[in-house]
Amino acid sequence: MTEAPSAQISVEQLTIEEAQAELERLAVEIAEHDKRYHGEDAPVISDADYDALRRRNDAIEARFPELVRSDSPSRRVGIEPSEGFGKITHKVPMLSLDNAFDDGDVRDFVGRVRRFLKFDPLMGALAVTAEPKIDGLSLSLRYEGGKLVSAATRGDGSVGENVTANARTISDIPQELKGDVPDVVEVRGEVYMAHADFQALNARMEANGGKTFANPRNAAAGSLRQLNPEITASRPLKFFAYAWGELSEMPADTQMGMVHAFESWGFVINERMQRCESVDELIAVYHGIEEERATLGYDIDGVVYKVDRLDLQTRLGFVSRSPRWAIAHKFPAEQAFTILNDIEIQVGRTGALTPVAKLEPVTVGGVVVSNATLHNEDYIKGIGQDGEPIRQGKDLRIGDTVKIQRAGDVIPQIVDVDLDKRPDGAVPFEFPTTCPACGSHAVREENAKGRVDAVRRCTGALICPAQATEKLKHFVSRNAFDIEGFGDKQVDAFYAADLVKTPADIFTLEARDRQTLTKLRNREGWGAVSARNLFEAINDRRSIDLNRFIFALGIRHVGEGNAKLLARAYGSWGAFYDAMIGAGDHGSPEWAELNDIDGIGSIVAEAVTEFFAEDHNREQLAALLAEVTPKDAEKIDAGDSPVAGKTVVFTGSLERMTRDEAKAMAERFGAKVAGSVSKKTDLVVAGPGAGSKLKKAEELNVEVISEDGWFELVGA
Ligand code: IVH
Predict the structure, then answer these.
(1) End-to-end CA distance of the chain, in Å?
(2) Does residue 3 register a pLDDT over 60?
(3) CATH of region 545-631
(4) C-beta separation of 374 from 383 below 8 A
(5) What is the share, in percent, of the chain residues with pLDDT greater than 70?
(6) 56: left (phi > 0), else alpha (psi -120 to 50), else beta?
(7) How remote is the CA of residue 136 from the centroid of ligand 1, in Å?
């Protein structure tokens, strides 16, 4: 469960400092959601809430363009590829689509296209295709000499994961193209799972005691992104071809013609694609597809419109992440009424009290819903993040009849209350002011600016069993210590039996087991083999990558990405630890250095130093480090490059590489990349549109070079 963000003020009222802090928070939060959605196929907020976060980010950036971060969500598409797969750089980037939510947006889209092209009605009809938007994940297939040579996921849009071996197991994907095909062909489309196959797969997984997938999209993504292609082969995946990347020769000059060429080469295309000549026709096709939605047998979440003529597509081009010549007309969310039976309070790792609605089970869009997130106590009262009323300000009471909405996401929302059906005597919900798990006070903290946090937190950090078990679950989780056979269930059981209360206890379990008569192997659910396997799995993790170790600590705002940044910046546990202790003094060089790490801002820096300032955290760490050794992070071989040891800042738009590539390249050559220009900066690489950082560099007399100059300098 994510924690709801703090109360917000309107973008117009933000000071520049607040805007900067908020952009940092949004970058962290959106990256986390992106990771959950794309990386782990397990989203925790609704699409609508996610869109609201992105909209706020965009609005703040529009007001303060100078504050746009190098890791801003507006510069990214999807997430970085996972490390388990090799990487493939897309020859032509894989982009996203803008959304239209109603007929008016579709009219605006066609109007915009016509104006851009100066295509007035006298020049005749503007042909636009309409086709279902498949709710799966996109894949780019490369053929050379007609043979499939590689398959890549979208990844961050520029670099995807190499899933070639997995793609070869999908029967809709030809290994060899039919007919006379260009030498280089990149066909793109959507990998998805049909409803019937999804249900059968989940039934099979359940029967084998495994976890099930929340929806077909997650099942498709989880199946394609398997490191073992045999597992993918056993999953019933399908593929529709609808777009392309590099092509050595174009087989057609329209969208429709291209897709038919793909069909002739052996691909499956969506037979519902149509060519329209007016907005009314597009909207009619949209409603037709919407009516068929329930009986299609696979999930779609809208209709995609594309300008048919490719010469016009070329003229229209792209705006940031999306083509100007296409738009996705999304279906409205699906809704249903049900009864709010109870409100349960869950306590998270950081003590956040999160209310969850327990609902009378109801089917919304084919999925049975019995829980809905309620975010925080204001949300229950009918107050949104920005203080604005939600559900027209109506509060939620146990026994209420509520309207549930599911918009292609996993966690549904309560969007309205039917006050006519409110039972007599229903009282406003009283949010607990003590922690349901440990009885400690639960408070809403005030930040430095006197604004009250939307989240109420348990103050019983050390004594709270809910916080302790959630922390342990995080510690052993897949991207942290990843101890096989040690999951949520084992954490709860070991904690209840007083066997494991802190992370260090995990590693002393075996030694203690040897000295006790109540051996693990004799406990219910365990035997000699499973106990031995568990001890082995634990011992396997006595040496661990530094970034995983840092991530496992569960420091607020330090997700996997920030843990990697910290590990790379400091190289070893000793260096990191000493620096974090030093950085507790905000006037120290360590504090300045921490804040200078590209991608680490003041919120993260504050959270990390606060963590190390706590005596009990340092005590727990000392106990843990008596058992576990973090490995040094990969040292960058600087060689004798001219930028070795220098601090470099990239600013403006770069044309030959992405920000991430620039950073990785600088680090390869032994340089340190910083996010802002200061006296410590040795070199600024400025692309077109560079603003305040360039000015600052000039003021401070810091050397400024162009992107080409950079390539020349490092000799790449
Ligand atoms: S065209 C340059 N057509 O939607 C844009 N995309 O929101 C090329 N999608 O990443 C995309 N069905 O994964 C296109 N018929 C369709 C689609 C479709 C699903 C997905 C695709 C894309 C995302 C954008």
Answers:
(1) 45
(2) no
(3) 1.10.150.20
(4) no
(5) 93
(6) alpha
(7) 9
Return the CATH number of 335-421, one of 2.40.50.140, 2.40.30.10, 2.60.40.1220, 2.60.40.420: 2.40.50.140
Residue 691 confidence (pLDDT):
82
Q: Which of 79-83, 104-108, 303-307, 678-682 has the lowest mean pLDDT?
A: 79-83
Is 142 within 8 Å of 160 (Cβ atoms)? no
Name the residue among 1, 47, 44, 100 with its Cα closest to residue 407: 47
Domains 469-541 and 545-631 are alike in CATH topology:
yes
Are 573 and 544 a contacting pair, CB within 8 Å?
A: no
pLDDT of 5 > 70? The answer is: no
Crossing angle of the two packed helices 103-117 and 279-292, in degrees rounded to 10 = 140
Cβ atoms of 65 and 640 within 8 Å: the answer is no
Which alpha helices (DSSP H) does 209-305 contain, by range? 216-224, 229-233, 255-264, 279-292
> Which residue numbers are catalytic?
133
Is 486 strand, coil or helix?
coil
Say which CATH superfamily domain 99-330 falls into. Answer: DNA ligase/mRNA capping enzyme (3.30.470.30)
Domain 5-76: CATH superfamily is: Helix hairpin bin (1.10.287.610)
563-598: b or e for each residue (b if 16 or more CB lie within 10 Å)?
bbbbbbbbeebeebbebbebbeeeeeebbebbbbbb
What are the E-state strand segments in 251-380? 274-276, 300-307, 318-319, 322-323, 326-330, 334-347, 353-364, 367-373
Instruction: Write down the pLDDT at residue 9.
Output: 77
* 251 or 49, greater pLDDT: 251
Q: Give the residue whose CA is nearest to atom 6 of ligand 1.
A: 133
Q: Enumerate the domain spans of the chain.
A: 5-76, 99-330, 335-421, 469-541, 545-631, 638-714
Q: Are 172 and 146 in contact (CB under 8 A)?
A: no
How far does the centroid of ligand 1 lie from the alpha carbon of residue 325, in Å? 13
Ligand 1: residue of 134, 246, 258, 273 to mutate (most ligand atoms within 8 A of CB) is 134
Of ligand 1's listed atoms, the one at least distance from the Cα of 270 is 15
Task: Determine contact, residues 321/157, Cβ cutoff 8 Å.
Answer: yes
Compute φ and ψ for 681, nearest 5 degrees.
-70, 135
Instruction: Name the residue at shortest CA distance from atom 17 of ligand 1.
Output: 133
Topology of the domain comprising 469-541: DNA polymerase; domain 1 (1.10.150)
User: Which atom number of ligand 1 is nearest to the Cα of residue 137?
Assistant: 13
Measured distance CA(242)–CA(268) in Å, rounded: 9
Counting every residue, how long is the chain? Answer: 716
Kindly report the backbone phi and psi dihedral angles of residue 509, in degrees, each rounded to the nearest multiple of 5, phi listed first. Answer: -60, -45
CA–CA separation, 43 vs 30, rounded Å? 11
CA distances from 420 to 22, 165, 417 (A): 40, 58, 9
The CA 97 to ligand 1 mean position distance, Å, reads: 6
Residues with CB under 6 A from ligand 1: 95-97, 131, 133-134, 138, 190, 242-243, 304, 323, 326, 328
The architecture of the domain spanning 638-714 is 3-Layer(aba) Sandwich (3.40)
Q: How far apart are the CA of 304 and the centre of ligand 1, in A?
A: 7
